[in-house]
Amino acid sequence: MDPATTPLGKMLLEEITPVVMVLRTPLVEEACLKNGLSFIEMLSPFCTFSNIDVPVRTSSDQPYRLQKFKLRLFYESDIRQPNLEVAKERLKQVITQAGDKDNSVSCSDPPTGPESESPPSWFEFFNKELVHTVSFSDHEAFDHPVACLLVVSSKDEQPINRFVDLFNTNKLPSLLNDGAMDPKILKHYLLVHDNQDCSSEKATKILTEMKNTFGTNDCHMLCINSSQDGQIEHRESLWASCKSVVSPDQHLGCFLNIDDISEIKDLMQELSSKHIIPYMEQKVRVLNQQVSATRKGFRNQIKNLWWRKGKEDTPDSPSGLMYTFSSIESQIRVLGDYAFMLRDYELALSNYRLISTDYKLDKAWKRYAGVQEMMGLTYFMLDQSRKEAEYCMENSFNTYLKIGSSGQKNATRCGLWWIEMLKTRDQYKEAATVYFRICTEEPLHSAVMLEQASYCYLLSQPRMLHKYGFHLVLSGDHYKKCDQIKHAIRTYRSAISVYKGTTWSYIKDHVYFHIAQWYAFLGMYDVAFTHLLEVLTCSHQSKTTQELFLREFLEVVQKTGKTFEVLKLQLPVINISSLKVVFEDHRTYATPAVASVRESLWCSLEEDMIPSLSTAKTNWLELQSKFLPKKYKESNICVAGEAIKVDIAFENPLKTPISISSVSLICDLSGSDEKSDSSHSTALQNDEEHKMLGDMISNTSLFTLSEVDFTLGGDETKLVQLTVTPKVEGSLRIVGIKWKLCSVVGYYNLESHLRNKKTARGRRKAKHSPGNDLKFVVIKSIPKLGGFIHTLPEKAYAGDLRHLVLELRNQSEFSVKNLKMKISRPRFLSIGNREDLNLEIPDCLEKKMNFERNDVPADSKKVTHGVFLFPEDIQINQEKPLSWPLWLRAAVPGTISLYIVIYYEMGDASSVMRYRTLRMHYNLQVLPSLDVSFTISPCPSKLQEFLVRMDVVNKTSLESFQVNQLSAVGWQWEISLLQAVDTIFPSQSLIAGQALSCFFMLKSIRKSSRTEEKISSLSRSCGSDVRLAPEGSKDTLLDICSSPLADFHDCERLQHEMSNQEDTNTVDFILISRPLKNDVDPGAGTSVAPRLFSHHACHCSTASTSPISWVVDGPRTTHHDFSVSFCEINLRMIIYNSSDAVAYVGVSTLDSPGGGVQSSDENPVASGNQAGWHSLSLTDDIKITSDVHGSDVAKPEPLPSVSPFIWSGTSSTRVQLEPMSSTEIPLLICVFSPGTYDLSNYALNWNLLHVNNEGNVGRTKQTSGTIPGYPYYLTVLQSE
Amino acid sequence: MPEVYGSSASKRSPSSSSRFAAESRLLEARVLKTHTLQEMATTACFIIVSRNDIPIYEAEVGSAAKREDAAQLHQFILHAALDIVQDLAWTTSAMFLKAIDKFNDLVVSVYVTAGHTRFMLLHNPHNDDGIKNFFQEVHELYIKILLNPLYLPGSRITSSHFNTKVRALARKYL
């Protein structure tokens, strides 16, 4: 590539060209100003020659031709180092103008992306201005005037004298005066004649005079303003570049006709080609010879070196005038620069090289840097050794920086050229770093440089967008510092295109917040607002920053003074997964909390109550189809006048509290008859969404919405319930949520978010498609029951028996009928009779003396499958609520959920929905109270009698209980005390933590008749009671057969159903107790609400392992005279069959003494007997005393080795035993000597014969067995 | 307002260009002195960037007093350095890329894992070895995080255990 065609090449061909100093009289200027141009401006378009075609011969003998050439014209007053302040002001103006012109700031559209970004065009202009701030430095020669153009107007008096005066005045630039350059420069004399003033004769006369005085060649005359009317139109571009602001009414150069212009052109051409170029040629040649003579050659070099060494101790003065124009160093520099300007780069380079070492040795750093800079440029123009070029530029740049602030500007210029050089070679990345390095203390310049750097990153291959964004932001910050808000916004806008959607939170917040702030500063609050929206959810920021963001946001909103409607307001955050819609179709809920129970649970409860699903559905679908279009079939049903509740969580991500007002749902209700709603359902696309949401607010006449105001504290989440109550029939759609944050209205589209988060749906509506979740068919208002249970406690002790009242209310004018009710835990809650309504515990349970039974309603209660049917005649109207008694018994400790479903049908048959259900849910916490356990063991001495041990532990921590009564359920048992009551309960009560055991005697009074038994188990009418209360108390015995107790007892029985449930050898106990309040007189029982506790123990087995029990009866001591004969003793064995089957029992006597074999067999029996024991740590001692059977047998007495007695009679007897019957077998033993005998060496074999197998299938019950005999001690004494 | 918040990015840049100026040399000396007085308060910001250029872990691990605006400046620098990482990551087989970028007196060191997750550390220039060790140990921790079946690669690391470990490593090596 030809370096001259590159941007840098063009720039150099423009900037490094011969300077012509122009000296003119005021009248010259005046004449030119008629055209709106200064003299230089008038000439400048003609100073650039693209094809001058002048032969040049410099050092070599071979001439070459110059094509492009340019002269720079300057007034003498401008040829000096520019004033820094002025220059700065000028640059600032450039930037401000550029900022004002840039209208991208005012458009609020987001930038399209970094691809479309292109660097602003004013950068080039700015850079040029920046380069110009360091022109006319004394350390470089290419800005030194090559020639001097003296211009005098023909109107001036004594023009010749004026010419002389012009050059001799003290106004000449300091460069010439202080010796930095040769004052003897080429002079050219020009006479300007204004054709409008007078004819050119006078001027011609002056010209001849001039030619006589200054020489023929150096004098010229220029006639201007030849056009009289001033209407000459020129091509715009002619002067456009030099005049930045053109007032529209003035045509530039309007008095210059075509002749004038060609005259100017000729003048400049001649000046260049005939005077300046030859002059420079000449000078180059002369200087070259001079340099060759003094510096070239080995001898000169040695001499030079030696000479420079000698100067080493001279002070280091970088800017001091060490080198006058006549010094050899200056001359070499001039030679180099002239050669450069004449494009003889080889010559220039060799001279620069020569001088650079000299300057370095002299430590003249600024000059050294200048020369290095030129070397770099020369290398570039020669297009060779790029590395050298860059090295020189860098060297120069660093050297400029090294000399301090004075070199800063030069460094900037050097950097800019260096950058251009790098850009030419596509080294944009390196160029960007140089831009970064030339950032100065001047923030404005830095801003521009940083912005240019950012564009370099954008242009580099591959694009470096991250760096681009970062440098734009840096640049924006600098712009902001200099109050160039518009530029700051422009850079940040570009940066946003990079950072859009970034997850680097701090970056995003910084960019958006600042640009918003600046927009607000410019008064563009709308745009500021949209940008601030992005930073609102800045949970990662510190609290102060969050407050700042929020405050700024609210300020902006306030300043706009209008209400914004924002679709994507991020504050507060709505948690869509928390969405829960509660509505009531045929399912209604007594309390809002009920709705949170799982639907499947309700379904299982309602299963038996509601009309079978298929028929019900077809029924109401038939009805529905008349009213509703088919597409709503799958929609939810709701009832007009009944609120739909939407629970949703609002989260505040910030640490500062925010207050939110007017939170409400956005709904859409279309009447059932209108078909126009199809347009609504399809129009939910992004653009229309907003408008649509806004529209929806208006039609509130069809439904009422709740509005909620609340304040969210820092990091708080609040669950808010919003309701919509439709007023008319139709189809209702919940579209979204709106809320107000200050005066910003936020919208949230529920539908579209639900569509996005199908998986996050609540379980309740899982069967519906998500889209239908928020669509409802509103049907006509129908009755709805409200239900409430009075006095249901939240906590109760186990066993607590209470009387409760269920109240059902109907708000609507229509009545409901056919009520049914089902309770999930009948063990805890049972339904009473209508008559029970006003009863009170314990009065209602007291035993009636006259035995008048009111167990008739037990059958009238229509309880089928646990569903209770209310009497047919019950209807609930608006005026009269229904009360119904319920019984509560806290059966077992724990947290109990009670679910109650009440089914009812509409009295009005025409309604769409035929029935509804009321769901109620209560939680009951049951605390442990008395722990009762029973152990029953057969009485060893008597058949059909049992010893019962009751262990009671009070497990409460505070309560004391008074034990009132123990009842054995069923007519076949009779229970009696073994000890006096006072000895059992010395303190009359069980205090907290106390454990107690007491014994009872239980007697079976069962008959063997099977039919009777069946009746008895059905009627379960009576039982036998033991009063445990102290005598003095007035508490009467309670009837355990009265309805609540008996009902609950049945439930308990069911609960404890065991494998051998049908075994009639089990007994149920009910222990009735009362809490003993210490502050209340225990005897009087006048506590406010007398409470009763019942503890049920079911299926306590009376049987040992076998159904057969026996007793050996006979004398314990006999006297016999063994001298006469052996002794025969008759014994009876009474065997009882307690099973319900026929048993065959065989008694086999063994003559060998009972040994270890038997005793070892006993162990399982013994342990089997202990199975009923509860492991209570307290009762270890009791266990030993009460273990009647086991312990005795386990320790057989040592027996005499020879059996002193024999069983006589049959050795084996078999008897058949009917169920529940006993028989007696006579036994005979022969004793041969006196002593004490253990008659345990016999065994009973029993075998059950099941007549009816119906209930016994799959039982693991023992049907046969062998039982060893138990000890029976007989003492035989020798009678005298 | 803007003076307080977030214009610090600009504050330092000029000083770089006048590094050789006598005045700034004096200034630097003074700054150095104050630094030593503060027990060499160091700035260090550690970020793990997922392969999608999303930061998945951020920690300020320096001992310098935390400034309000430092967080976003650090993010800016590290974010900008991603470009350089992109260039360099494919030129070497080493995971530790050393100091790849700098902004004024802050240096960016990067460690690229095989999955192209980048550990970026912004720090005051000092020992390379410590940083290398730091990165290697953090890499091990990161692998442990990856092994967690409940951790979705590329999602934010919220493990508090990881956080405390990283901070402990930073104290040890940086």
From TrEMBL, chain A:
Q: Where is the composition biased (Low complexity)?
A: 108-119
Q: Residue limits of the TPPC8 second Ig-like domain?
A: 799-918
Annotated ranges, domain TPPC8 first Ig-like: 600-747
Family annotation (SUPFAM superfamilies): TPR-like
**UniProt source species:** Manihot esculenta
Task: Give me the ranges of the annotated region Disordered.
Answer: 97-119
Q: What is this protein called?
A: Trafficking protein particle complex subunit 8
Q: Which InterPro entries match?
A: Ig_TPPC8_1st, Ig_TPPC8_2nd, Ig_TPPC8_C, TPR-like_helical_dom_sf, TRAPP_III_complex_Trs85
Q: Please, which domain of life does this record's source organism belong to?
A: Eukaryota
An example GO CC term for this entry is: TRAPPIII protein complex
Q: Which residues does the UniProt record annotate as the domain TPPC8 C-terminal Ig-like?
A: 1115-1243
Q: Which Pfam families match?
A: Ig_TPPC8_1st, Ig_TPPC8_2nd, Ig_TPPC8_C, TRAPPC-Trs85
TrEMBL record, chain B:
Q: Spell out the protein name for this chain.
A: Trafficking protein particle complex subunit
Q: Name one GO cellular component term.
A: nucleus
Quote the PANTHER family the UniProt record gives. Answer: TRAFFICKING PROTEIN PARTICLE COMPLEX SUBUNIT 2
Q: Entry's Gene3D superfamilies?
A: 3.30.450.70
Q: Record's InterPro entries?
A: Longin-like_dom_sf (IPR011012), Sedlin (IPR006722)
Q: Pfam families in the record, alphabetically? A: Sedlin_N
Q: Biological process (GO) annotations?
A: endoplasmic reticulum to Golgi vesicle-mediated transport
